[in-house]
Design a protein that fits this description.
Largest sheet of chain A: 11 strands, mixed
Structural class of chain A: alpha/beta
Subcellular location (chains A, B): Endoplasmic reticulum; Golgi apparatus; Lysosome; Secreted
Main location (chains A, B): endoplasmic reticulum
Number of strands of chain A: 14
Protein name (chains A, B): Carboxypeptidase Q
Keywords (chains A, B): Carboxypeptidase, Endoplasmic reticulum, Glycoprotein, Golgi apparatus, Hydrolase, Lysosome, Metal-binding, Metalloprotease, Protease, Secreted, Signal, Zinc, Zymogen
Oligomer: homodimer
Number of helices of chain A: 15
Organism (chains A, B): Tahibacter aquaticus
Chain lengths: ~475, ~475
């Protein structure tokens, strides 16, 4: 399999690919996709779904009080939107609970801090952990630390993320949050605190998952808000600083939730599916509007628009509301495990999980012979402001496991400039979603999904087909 | 006393005021003021003071754990900055304490809410108050409500504030917060909740003081953040909504704090003072950077620049770090009560208490014969972007009581566009202060204060001189 457009062009131009193998989109399908696109831009369905989910369900921590309620909401919505098959597939994971959290500088300048525990963090001992802070500016600096400088202290890693359209500074913040705690634990730290992996300046810390080595040491891990991190740094410029951290949280056995799936059955090839969606779980601090109620709502609304056509699509349209993405892609992995035998039947897929600001880029991991079909999609998407990305797409977090099994995938990149202002904070609420940009997202999804469902030919899905591909997001 | 420039011009032009009565600024003083202004723009003193106060003291709830610490900080800073007289004057007030606070929608859609108790709110009974919400869109609508529609319910007043350069929508939000609770209590409400008096969209509610009738009923009163208010409204659109409010807070007897005062003694007329400053207390949620660490730092830094001149000013420069502005101008009222016999000696005054974004307007409450001196000040201030306001100035919150006694006053209006994003929230932290704009503030204060100290003639301060004046801020 070839990754990028130039290779495909070479293959086509040199005649090494025969015309019969080329995937195309019928003109009638392009015309219909344009009509769907324009309808979607005027359609308030996705926003109504998102308003309903955030109001009537709210925060959706995987395994938490609203897990089942959210699944029931999704089942009801799929049915009401006219999806003709609606079912659930079980997903099991260790259930993490947050009970309470607080932190303060205790010396030399006592001040409360805005703090939040990280997912899968253990609790502090009763009474909390009080210890001197040792600060690092990067994960590499922490890795290079001597055990004697870290042992018994609270490791504080402070690196700033800047906003970018493609959100690439999350590549700095995310590993500091997810991998830093285990590294600090190995070095004997008493606890771990990071400057939030976020681009805002509000007293709302960013939570997120941590990754631990099986059988390795675990320590309490938390994030402070950016202004609190500034304060800690200001205090440290004056000398030694003692921090107190109190976290009551931890794992409470296993929980079985589910991926909730709705399908519009195809008229010609019902066993072949075009797949989209988002994850139904969210962190508990906000109501999960941008992460990822938006993705679920976009998928549902796009699927419904196709479902309401007088003529069913040739292939099936499958929308998945994934379980527990946040704590480690549990829903996406369960889906891939359950469906890997049918990977060839997963014609093309893309999950929305980067908010719902304007989509500006399409990146494709498809076989070169299908690039003319992607070009056709681009003709429909370009008026929406979508550019062709030259890298490969992994289909988004929850579809990356089945993409790794061989499903052809698109990555549709939102404008992420303000995404990390709100991501994983209490501020992830409905008011952060712009209805007009959300509708642009639905227009993008309905367009490519419909054209994929109507395509003459496939996009290269086959067992192991995209093993070489990375993700350029 | 005449309020506005045209009247003064008429008086001067018609010759009804003799030249001998006209207040002027000597040319040498104008020249020196320009040098001080330009020095201030390059001076980092105010920012260093503010960084010190927010880092080493932090939140400064009046009567709270940091009240005395903040006063000691101010005394030490005044001395270190070379103020030759430093003293405290006692201020006594009812001490209000915040212990804990939480709220949630309990039916039909259980969700936690971001809430904060309002100053002087009583606690809820143990176990909290749970009751249906009755919503009003304005204070007038609440005032017009029937007792039967309110009794036993939780009153929710939801009005949005928009950002403006002069912050005038606080004229909507402030009375809803301060006066609404007493009105709801008179109508038999169980509790009172408002949409935060703020212009932001963050899950950080805005606290602030409440006003109660002596001997009248009091009910628990709190603010929810703007996104939480949106959620309550969305739930109410679907029907009846039950809210649970738990506040542990209340008055714990009286506390005696102090106004902390630093003075640069005048060389010719030491008993005549030019007065400026800010309030040292803050709400407890943030570190009180914009409200009002900035004002204290601006006054201290401006005073210090004058104090470091080789030649002392003719009149004294007095900088006051006022006690407990937030709960009801206790410091400002105590100052006026202690000094009203000397009101004629308070030549001119202005407090900074609207953040430290760029000052764009000067409004004056002075005698008409001193308007030529104000014009001279404007020549020095105009290059800083300051316009002449046509309304009257009351000298800022803590100087308004002594202004009401007869002190001539300036109001220097900051750009308040983003002030109510942070005001009275956990987000009032140092990162919200722009060092460059803060320096512009110091440049404004040092300029007018120096010229007032050097003026030939006065600005009209006399017992009862400004009784007619309101405030155009």
């Amino acid at each position: 399999m070839l990754r990028a457009l130039p290779c495909a062009l070479i293959a086509l131009l040199t005649g090494s690919v025969s015309a019969a193998e080329i995937t195309t989109i019928p003109d009638a399908a392009v015309k219909q996709a344009i009509a769907l696109r324009d309808q979607a831009l005027k359609d308030g369905q996705a926003y109504a779904l998102l308003e309903s989910l955030t109001t009537e369900v709210g925060p959706r921590l995987a395994g938490g009080v609203n897990d089942e309620k959210a699944r029931n909401w999704a089942i009801a919505q799929f049915k009401q939107l006219g999806f003709d098959k609606v079912w659930s597939e079980p997903v099991t994971f260790p259930k993490w609970v947050r009970r309470s959290e607080s932190a303060s500088l205790v010396a030399p300048f006592p001040q409360p801090l805005a703090v939040t525990a990280l997912g899968y963090s253990p609790a502090t001992p009763k009474g909390g952990v009080t210890a001197p802070i040792v600060m690092f500016n990067s994960l590499d600096a922490l890795k290079a630390a001597k055990r004697d400088d870290v042992k018994g202290k609270i490791v504080f890693v402070s690196a700033r993320m800047k906003p970018h359209r493609d959100g690439h500074d999350y590549g700095i913040g995310s590993p500091i949050r997810s991998r830093g705690p285990a590294i600090a634990a190995e070095l004997g730290a008493a606890a771990y605190v990071l400057r939030s992996a976020g681009t805002d300046s509000h007293r709302l810390p960013h939570t997120g998952v941590t990754q631990w080595k099986e059988g390795g040491p675990r320590i309490p891990a938390a994030a402070v808000s950016n202004p609190d991190a500034d304060l800690i740094e200001a205090a440290l410029r004056r000398g030694s600083v003692q921090l107190k951290l109190q976290l009551d949280c931890g794992i409470e056995g296993d929980y079985t939730g589910a991926n909730v799936i709705g399908e519009i059955t195809g008229s010609e090839k019902p066993d072949e599916v075009v797949i989209m969606g988002g994850h139904l779980d969210s962190w508990d601090l906000g109501t999960g509007a941008i992460d990822d109620g938006a993705g679920v709502s976009i998928g549902m609304a796009a699927g419904a628009l196709i479902g309401h056509l007088p003529q069913a699509p040739r292939r099936s349209i499958r929308v998945v509301a994934f379980a527990n993405e946040e704590a480690g892609l549990y829903g996406g992995k369960a889906y891939a495990a359950a469906h890997k035998q049918e990977v060839s039947k997963h014609v093309l897929g893309s999950e929305s999980d980067f908010g719902s600001d304007r989509i500006w880029r399409l990146s494709a991991s498809v076989k070169p012979e299908s690039l003319p079909a992607i070009d056709k999609m681009m003709q429909v998407l370009a008026p929406l402001g979508v550019e062709r990305g030259m890298g490969a797409g992994n289909g988004g977090p929850d579809l990356s496991p089945i993409h790794a099994e061989g499903m052809a995938a698109l990555s549709l990149t939102n404008d992420g400039t303000r995404y990390f202002d709100y991501h994983h904070t209490a501020d992830d609420t409905l008011d952060k979603v712009d209805p007009e940009q959300l509708a642009q997202n639905v227009a993008v999804y309905v367009s490519w999904a419909y054209m994929a469902a109507q395509a003459d030919g496939d996009f290269g899905s086959a067992p192991g087909a995209f093993k070489q591909n990375g993700d350029d997001d």
